Amino acid sequence: MKISIIGVGLIGGSMALKLRTKGIADFIYGIDQSEKHLTEALDLNIIDEKADLESGIKSSDLIILAVPVDAAKKLLPKVLDLVSEHQTVMDAGSTKSGIVNAVKDHPNRARFVAFHPMWGTEDNGPKSAVSESFSGKAGVICNREESAPDALRLVERIAESLDMHLIYMNAESHDVHTAYISHISHITSYALANTVLEKEREEETIFQLASSGFSSTVRLAKSHPEMWVPIFRQNKENVLDVLNEHISQLRKFKSALEKENFEYLGELIANANKIRGILDK
Amino acid sequence: MKISIIGVGLIGGSMALKLRTKGIADFIYGIDQSEKHLTEALDLNIIDEKADLESGIKSSDLIILAVPVDAAKKLLPKVLDLVSEHQTVMDAGSTKSGIVNAVKDHPNRARFVAFHPMWGTEDNGPKSAVSESFSGKAGVICNREESAPDALRLVERIAESLDMHLIYMNAESHDVHTAYISHISHITSYALANTVLEKEREEETIFQLASSGFSSTVRLAKSHPEMWVPIFRQNKENVLDVLNEHISQLRKFKSALEKENFEYLGELIANANKIRGILDK
């Protein structure tokens, strides 16, 4: 199968590596605004050839859109304009309502499968791509009834080749759940980094003392605004809803401390401990 | 050297394993309220013999106090009552002002060295002890001028045997810095877990969708109240100070989203990204 990857960064690059290893991809075109990323992707054997949007799409069975969600929303209608009934388009974005709504009346809507691989790191660019990134992770397909059966089957096969387990939900539910499970973690982590940077003027001390616990909690704060501002913009209502809850949860800790109600503090912590039972299933 | 370890859990157990490997510890007495932990520690070859407080201390050159900080504060004066000028006592607690103040007028104060290894996990008990836990991490010695030179030298040798790099500061500074770098991370993580548990009633969905990012940010929320309530209690003022700053940082994200000021949102994120430069030095 010939595949065009639009956006040869962390996600697109990791998919390319794995699909090549699995023998699914015979030839991979790379399409990217960044010449630097294209050159790196060629050097790393992530892509076979760089291409422009039209020629890459024309020659491909599958087109994978792996760019920030604002760019994806703008680009997808143009991509669908160019495809025939024998081609399939999938995305990899962290928000789903925006992109699904952007093409809901497009004549080629059925050629598109809305996909979200639940994996990412704070790094970006083809150099951070890793073949095994997606193994064991969830791959979410949204609004499957809006895709043609053969397009859906192809994307399911791609997800399985990435060693992901598939989950189906509608785009609205997806955006609610990811606000809880992914987007709020990033805001927390950014705010924590800003807190420490604000309060702790002695950078050397941060560096010297930073324990593995701190590094773990603040890891996501390294994630770039180019990717995350568009996600927060598209999922604004859900993120605000969870953020309000998060602030009110932090206020409970504040109140327990201020009132020296350490029994209540212990209850708050014991409740949080329940996450262990859920995550370590 | 003969060593008594009071509290054969994650920290005490990990120290024991490493000090035995390094040949520093010839014989290790385990002292613990939990018979279960003592039996496990014997089975795991963490300790050579279980002992009661008096007999263990009497037979040891070094006594390591590795219990929750409230218990440590109560226990240390009793331990110092029992030691002679040829014995050294060190602790491993995450707060330092409380314990240092508890013994500041004790006649044997000079035999005590206040120590904090900047490492921990969300697990507890001897079964989670790992020999290499402390390698490359910071070990903080507080108020070194209050310890006898030979006691200080011994604890420095212990920290070096654990492959830690040493930092010296006074107890008050330590408690300020750890509020920033360690304690607030735990509150953030607990509050995030409670947020998700409150909002996301579908536990199965949390489990299925939870990405590595979420798991990383929420990892510390698995840490037990028995250890953390006493830390927050002893470091209340500093933790409240940082918690207030953290809530106000989260409010900036909230305000940027509510006002759809995505340029400001991008600035907040770009500022948080600076943590990369500090942590990845």
Strand order of the largest sheet of chain A: 3-2-1-4-5-6-7-8
Main β-sheet description of chain A: 8 strands, mixed
Q: For the largest interface in this structure, which chains are involved and how many residues does each contribute?
A: A-B, 93 and 93 residues
Q: For this structure, what is the CATH class of the largest domain in chain A?
A: Alpha Beta
Number of helices of chain A: 12
CATH superfamily caption of the largest domain in chain A = NAD(P)-binding Rossmann-like Domain
Number of strands of chain A: 8
Q: What's the quaternary structure here?
A: homodimer
CATH topology of the largest domain in chain A: Rossmann fold
CATH architecture of the largest domain in chain A: 3-Layer(aba) Sandwich
Order of helices and strands of chain A: EHEHEHEHEHEEHEHHHHHH
**Terminal residue distance of chain A:** 37 Å
The number of domains of chain A: 2
Would you identify the regions of chain A where 5 or more consecutive residues have pLDDT less than 50? none
Portion of residues in beta strands of chain A equals 5-15%
Please estimate the helix content of chain A. Answer: 40-55%
Question: Helix/strand/pairing class of chain A, anyone?
Answer: alpha/beta
Mean pLDDT of chain A: 93
Rounded to the nearest angstrom, the radius of gyration of chain A is 21 Å
The best one-word shape of chain A is: globular
